[in-house]
Amino acid sequence: MAGEENNRGAFRIQEFYCRHMDAPMYARLCTAVAEGLTRESRTGARILDWPGEPTRDALPLRFFGGLHALVRAGQGEGLAAVFRGEVTDRDAIAAALNAALVAHDDVVLPWLDGPPQTNEPGRSGALMLGLTAIARQHGPKIELLEIGSSAGLNLLIDRYAFDLGGTRVGPADAPVTIRPEWKGDPPAPTPVDIVSVRGCDVQPLDATDPAVEERLLSYVWPETPVRAERLKKAIAMQRERHVDLVRADAADWIEARLAEPQDAGVTRVLMHSVVWQYLPAAVADRIRDAMRAAAERATAERPLGWVMMEPNRAFAQQIVRVRSWPGHADWDVLATAHAHGTWVKMGIGEEDRRPYDLPDSAKVEAG
Q1: 115 in Cβ contact with 58 (< 8 Å)
Q2: What is the pTM of this model?
Q3: Over the stretch 20-55, which tens digit does the pLDDT of each residue have?
């Protein structure tokens, strides 16, 4: 069946990403799903009969969130052994998987209903690199606007501390320090004063709700426990003081924010990470148009910036790039980064640039 083969193929694609993101257990699980998932369960049948585009719909990540939630709840012991890395044989993993789905279909099936919410604080490190570049060009004061904020954990960027290859940014006494493995020269020390942070999402989550916290933890890959601990600390920071996060269409929200008065001496910056690929084409076009119009109004006294961390799918990594007005309208590629912010590599070599230049899904067109 063509549809079934396409849906199995989405897990083969995800297996590539997992291998390149140092997640061998999830890579093995992807292979087991691609080769051995059956229709014994309603969950298995729904995956194999998925009507949409499974990779764009992030079907593997929806599914793995449900499986991880099952394991975190202490159910599916055979599957738990897979998650602990004790079972590595493909056929044994497939058998444990199918048995867990038959026994716990009602638990896992609803996880396929919506997209994953993999809000990752670690991405703030790559985004802060972009903000330091903006600050060097236009001054330290920044008004930050984030689209696709999910649970708002990157809206804490003004409250996190950062160690960017030895360059320190942010409050020294912050409960969370973002410290990616740094490859290459660190950014020049630059004062960054984030005067306001606001965000929107079409389906925002309240991370301070214990049920939502558990859901977010289920989307954290179990092979990286440091991410889970950092997520818990970030949510505790939200409980102490909420972030400014609203439900809104990204284009509607950006158009409205860009139309607001802007304080003199403050750079207004659009920021996003791993979201552009999920925007409907019409929404992305409207955001481009709104930024283009705002760029024409930008002045040295009221500058405009754009910072993003978006995927280079061919190499399973992210491209960090910035542009700003007036004077720096061309995209400047600063670095490549791990999708979860585990590492940041300054610059972009030929081995990274080739797929980035392809006119297909490997390329991110934001402007």
Answers
A1: yes
A2: 0.87
A3: 888 999 999 999 999 999 999 999 999 999 998 998
For residue range 285-294, list pLDDT tens digits in order.
Answer: 999 999 999 9
What is the per-residue pLDDT for 356? 40
**Which of 31, 49, 32, 30 has its CA nearest to residue 41?**
49
Strand partners, 12: none
Burial class (CB within 10 angstroms; exposed 0-12, middle 13-18, buried 19+) of 100: buried
Q: What is the rounded average pLDDT for all residues in the chain?
A: 92
- Cβ proximity of 244 and 279 under 8 Å: no
Q: Torsion angle of alpha carbons 273, 197, 234, 337, nearest 10°? A: 30
Cβ neighbours of residue 152 closer than 8 Å, sequence gap 6 or more = 119, 199, 201, 204, 205, 207, 238, 243, 245
Angle, alpha carbons 214-81-49 (nearest 5°): 70
Rounded Cα–Cα distance for residues 194 and 172 (Å): 15
Q: HSE, CB side, 13 Å, CA atoms: give it for residue 336.
A: 17
* 104-141 pLDDT per residue, tens: 999 999 999 988 877 799 999 999 999 999 999 999 99
Residue 61's alpha-carbon distances to 26, 108, 294, 303, 341, in angstroms, are 10, 12, 36, 38, 18
Residue 362: the pLDDT is: 34
